[in-house]
Write a structure and sequence with these properties.
This protein has nine helices and five strands. The chain is an alpha/beta fold. Helix 3 packs antiparallel against helix 5.
């Protein structure tokens, strides 16, 4: 079984691309969703409190995702600390998840931070989804209801997508001008014919 990673910056359309792969019968592991589940674990919450303080938690003891996002996405050092704390647990979940997928032609690990966390060596193939900054900004504003300035702060704290694209095996253009499905089908057919 080949292990693929799908990456791309905020608003690029990674999840949309992965939904198409999923419709083709490919199993997709969404690292962000798993991380959100891990934030419910008491040991992880205790580590977050020690590292960042109580103020990122709501009165009911749950992580306040809006406050947490504001904290980590506006400060690269804090973002790296958060990733170092949670990411080993995400990778362990991925190892367990992929153990029963050995008969599949390939699986996908969806994450925005493949290159930032130096994970590229874990995967046989890396696909980067790209879109212009104004397109990504508009998408994030529409889906999350956050202001343009906040989206642009998050974008500034991410690795340049051109650099990601240069290090990738495949690049999917998701600006809305080039049809998405033919690009995905080309990659799928390439991978399943090898």
């Amino acid at each position: 079984m080949k292990q693929l990673a799908v990456t791309g910056n905020i608003g690029s359309g990674k999840t949309t691309v992965c939904k198409v792969f999923s419709a083709l019968g490919i199993a997709v592991f969404n690292a962000d969703e798993v991380a959100k589940e891990l934030y419910q674990r008491e040991d992880i919450k205790a580590q977050l409190k020690t590292k960042f303080g109580d103020y990122i938690f709501a009165a009911d003891g749950q992580l306040d995702l809006a406050k947490y996002a504001q904290l980590i996405f506006t400060n690269k050092a804090r973002l790296e600390e958060a990733n170092q704390l949670v990411h080993p647990h995400v990778l362990e979940e991925y190892r367990q998840w992929s153990s029963d997928k050995q008969t599949m032609p390939y699986t996908i690990f969806e994450s925005a931070i493949i290159f930032e966390n130096n994970l590229q060596s874990l995967f046989d193939t890396i696909i980067t989804v790209i879109a212009d900054e104004d397109v990504r900004t508009k998408r994030v504003m529409e889906r999350s209801g956050i202001q343009s300035k906040a989206v642009k702060e998050r974008i500034r704290n991410q690795m340049d997508e051109k650099l990601k694209a240069r290090q990738s095996d495949f690049v999917i253009d998701n600006n809305g001008k080039t049809a998405l499905i033919p690009q995905i089908m080309h990659i799928h057919e390439t991978l399943t014919s090898q």
